[in-house]
Structure formats: C-alpha cells, structure tokens
Amino acid sequence: MGQYAPVWDHRASVKVTKDMSGTNQVTLRNPQGASVKVSLHGGQVTSWRNDRGEELLFSSSKAISKSLKSTRGGISVFFPQYGNGGSVEQHGFARNKIWTIEDNPPSLKSFDTQGKSFIDLLLKPSEDDLKFWPHAFEFRLRVSLASDGSLSLTSRIRNINGKPFKFSFAYQTYFSVSNISEVRLEGLETLDYRDNLCQKELFTEQGDAITFEAEMDRVYHLSPNCIAVLDHEKKRTYLIKKEGLPDIVLWNPWQKKSKAMVDLGDEEYKKMLCVDGAAIEKPITLKPGKEWTGRVELVMVPSTHWNDDL
Ligand SMILES: O=P(O)(O)OC[C@H]1O[C@@H](O)[C@H](O)[C@@H](O)[C@@H]1O
Questions:
Q1: From residue 89, how far is each of 10, 24, 30, 84 by CA, in Å?
Q2: How far apart are the first and last CA of the chain?
Q3: Rg for the chain (alpha carbons), in Å?
Q4: Mutate to test the pocket of ligand 1, among 62, 88, 91, 248 (most ligand atoms within 8 A of CB)
C-alpha cells in the first residue's frame, strides 16, 4: 500500500476506493489539501487538485467510463509503443490494462519520502500481451504528491526477458487551460521538430514562444529538461520537469468538423493542451536484467515567477 513519511505527516493519506465503473482508484492527499487521483485502469492520473481544490488537469465530459480504453484526459502512460506504427494498439497497451498496487516495491534510489504521499503500481504482461509483444517486463509506476502540491510520476521498466527489447514511451498530460488561444509555451525555442500533420517533415522552431492557433501535433527533439506552459487568464504556470525523456510532443486536435472525436465535446479542445514528455525518436533498447527510469514532475507556480524556477 502507499506510504507517507510518519514523522511530520499525519494528514497525508492514501486511500483506495472504487470509481464509477467499479475500478479501484487511489487518492493521495497532502496536509495542505492538494490531492491526486490515480486509476488502476491504465495507471492513469485522473485528477490533480491544488490546495484550493482547483482541478489542474483536463478531463473530457464525454469520457466513456466503462470503455476498455483509457478516458481522454488526465495523465496516461504510453508503453511499449508511441503512435500506431508498431505491432500493438495506438500508444501501446499499458494505458488500457488493469494495474495492481505493489506494497513492497524495490527501493527507488534518490526518492526522498519526506513530505510525500505516494503509491506504487505494477504492470506485468498477460499471456495475450505476449502474443503481440513477446517481451517479458515489469513496469513499476510511482505516483507521488509532495507537500508543495507538485505531482511526480516515475516509471521503472525492467527487462526480465532473455533478450534485449526496444520500446518507446510517453507521459501524456492534458493540462486544463482557460482558452488554448491564450496560452503560450516556453522552452522549445530554436529546436527542431517533426510535424505529424505534414508527413513528419522536419522544421525548426522560430518563435520566441509557442502559441496555439490551429490543430497541432509536433514532436520536439532533444528538448530541455524544464519547459513552461503559461496561462495568464487562469494565473497558472505549469512547469514540466523531466528526466530520461528527450522529446516533447505538443498536441491539440482543434475543432475537427469533418472527423469529430467521439470522446471529446465540441468546444472542449479550447480547454485542453496535451504536452507529452516522451522518448520516441530513438526507441530505448533495454538489455536483459536492466532497468530504465523515466520521470516527470509537474509544478504549478504563480505566472510571474516561473523563470526563477528554471
Ligand atoms: O486518441 P489517442 O490515441 O489518445 O491519441 C491522441 C493523440 O496523442 C498524441 O500524442 C499524438 O501525437 C496524436 O497524433 C494523437 O492523435
């Protein structure tokens, strides 16, 4: 079961309940009143609230809770494949599987438990998964809420196969924004990106900051380990700090009149921005017995102060 530092933290808690579809979900709380919800369906973070109870992640109103697929919104884990170019379903099977809670996971080096409420989840391949992707693995996901309200996800993927395997990976985060047209993103200036809407053609980012005026689906390579999403109207700045994840994907479907997304309300594209910390361009090769770690930390800071934190 999840843990928290006993000395300081009598109010931080980890609670397991059932969601509307009957799947177990875990709620993490910190003493200041911030909270995080994680579903065992996909290990998906479905909610992240600050100490004022304000939701920081977008969730579609058309989320189909009984579907076998993960719901649109929150934070999803993509493994063992990003996109649809391989042998398994789009963005891999991990987001559509039921994970288990791991009571005594192997210790996580350099993880300071002080002031944190956290839970460890585990995914192992089923016989069926092995038919499509014949590589035995253990995937450990630690979701952690710190006393300052920041949320971190650490993935540890171990090859327990006799042979090396390759995979790609992403944390897909749907931030809740006031209006996508008013948001800007800083930290990707001058980087090369592949545009998925232009046959993956390579471009170089020219602007001072990225703004959103139309559909976007881009993969930025070798991005810095901290980028910022500024939403002045909501007076929120999200910092995305990452380790082991060289790429960033920016995605917003905009309003698709011809091909509406069935699990997204008509105007809801305005309220979301998807930023994925990812390892896509060069899939990771994992040798037998080895473990890979990829981490993302999300921080919400007052809009005018984000630069100090970089
Ligand atoms: O609908 P899905 O499978 O959740 O994918 C949503 C989007 O995810 C993004 O990461 C991709 O870059 C997009 O191409 C894709 O459309």
A1: 43, 24, 36, 6
A2: 34
A3: 19
A4: 91
| CA atoms of 252 and 143, how far apart (whole Å) | 25
Mark the binding-site residues for substrate, compressed into ranges.
72, 90, 95
User: What pLDDT digit, counting tens, does each position of 261-305 carry?
Assistant: 888 988 999 999 999 999 999 999 999 999 999 999 999 986 655
3-class secondary structure, 178: coil
- Running DSSP on this structure, what letter comes out for residue 70? P
Coil vs helix vs strand at 130: helix
CB atoms within 10 A of CB 181: 11
54-88 tens-digit pLDDT:
999 999 988 665 556 778 999 999 999 999 988 89
Q: Which atom of ligand 1 is nearest to the CA of 217?
A: 12
Residue identifier of the C-alpha nearest atom 6 of ligand 1: 251
| 84 C-alpha to ligand 1 centroid (Å) | 9
Please state whether beta strands 151-159 and 165-176 pair in parallel, antiparallel, or not at all (unpaired): unpaired
Is the overall model pTM greater than 0.90, yes or no?
Answer: yes
Query: How confident is the model over 213-218, as a mean pLDDT?
Result: 96
Q: ipTM exceeding 0.85?
A: yes
